[in-house]
Fold each of these.
Amino acid sequence: NNTLVALPIVAIENILSFMSYDEISQLRLVCKRMDLVCQRMLNQGFLKVERYHNLCQKQVKAQLPRRESERRNHSLARHADILAAVETRLSLLNMTFMKYVDSNLCCFIPGKVIDEIYRVLRYVNSTRAPQRAHEVLQELRDISSMAMEYFDEKIVPILKRKLPGS
């Protein structure tokens, strides 16, 4: 069998690593083996974006003055605001999905959200004077809110029946 899914999982993951997380999430429909590989990559992708965010936040905080009054006028104030808002989003996503991911009932489903968080973090890292936080984060807020609402309304009722002790 000379198909992609016949390759070792490490090889498949290496090939898929060149794709966006949204594309990876769509590949889950191909077959059961691809679904398992993609689920694993999505879960790892969420954990990686959390670590990348922590690194970005640590780097910015290290350059900010200690006094809160001096921080508002600092050149990295908007960077810090954006990263704080991303931290809130990550926390909400974590609370929504990870209980079920940790119970092996599902994976971190919205690959598009991971892609958008990476886009925001790369923007913050590469821009000296970023736009205001609400402008930078509009798309992330929209798609993550939609993903969490859909998950809570449509998927959680199904998963709750599968939870141990239900």
Note: The longest helix spans residues 32-63.
Amino acid sequence: SGLLSRLQTSASTVRTLSASKSFSQNIPSCVWKLGRLNHVAIAVPDLEKAQSLYKNVLGAQVSETVALPEHGVYTVFVELGNTKLELLHPLGEKSPIASFLQKNKTGGMHHICIEVDDIKAAMAELKRKKIRILSEEPKIGAHGKPVIFLHPKDCHGVLVELEQA
């Protein structure tokens, strides 16, 4: 009964914290707004096997392969209802995915992509806040929209992609 009591107390605390207005009051206001999670990108050493897993084994809707030479990747999107997975495979020897796969032979999570309502305002403010951006200007991403990447060392070890909503 001690464990049950502790679990009930913990659940009550979580509900209180999640409903708390003081949490949102601590978030500084920005000129731009962070939006929804667009996708989680996964580097894969074998794109066909990965496509097959999601399509034939898990039954997901899987896009065709699209080459993005400017980013050095092949991309495939897996629809999940509330978000997507982006399967990434190297395109060319200078691909950032090739170097990622050299260090992570079986693949793994590469980055997360979050939508923003104003990518230029986000860039300006993030630079003022000393967050490194991996390009001087946005590039056109897999969805045909401007994207930037934030340095993982400035984002607690996560490569973050921001995409214009």
Note: Strands lie at 34-43, 61-62, 66-68, 73-79, 84-90, 108-116, 139-140, 146-150, 160-164.
Amino acid sequence: VLGLLVWTLIAVTTYYLNPAYSWVMFVSISLWILTILFFVTYLFQLQLKFYTIPWPLVLMIFNAVATVLYISAFVTCAAAVQPTSWRQWDYNRRAAASFFAGVVMITYGVSTFFSFRAWKGLGSNAATSQVTDH
């Protein structure tokens, strides 16, 4: 939802006049689509059909790459916001997109941490850490 907010807020402005926003659009839309694909994969448990793929590792790498890409998108988006813009509504939407890009960046960073824990087998949530073998 947060990634959707980023590219929607940019898309309703005249982003094509500033090439920096094209990078933000590329990152946000690409990662939004890939995140939706991972979500659907886990929702329908399709990862169980492809058991040879190390899914915790794949998810950790995806989240790490997404974090790095969103860092660049956040910095680009925040640097391109012009407070003296003659279109006040463009400024407001771009500033909001910068804020949400920062939130998405932090969210992917936290997901990377939990994916790393799941990959290392340290338990990704409270339910899996409470299971003991007897």
Note: The chain has a mean pLDDT of 88.
Amino acid sequence: RGKALQPLFKMSYSCSKVGDPRPGHPYKGGNFCAFLPETVEGVKIAKLLKKAFECGLTFQIKSCNGEERVTWGPIPHKTSWDGGKARNGYPDAQYLHEVGTVL
């Protein structure tokens, strides 16, 4: 598998904002981990993902059973080294190109 970059996002409890399911209500956070290869392109994508996170584009808040939760947003992330594309994992030869296009 080689070396891998592992961006870790930790979202704790907070209040939702305008445009979220219930603005001003608290939501439950969580730990989110994604994997990128430690290659020139992987490092480039990591920088773009950091910018997306800083702009509030990485996560979204969804209402589930009356509770607001943080979930992954529209930017695809690889959350496993295994399982292939169908399970948000590797191998997926097109992932870096596809996420780069989205970013």
Note: The radius of gyration is 15 Å.
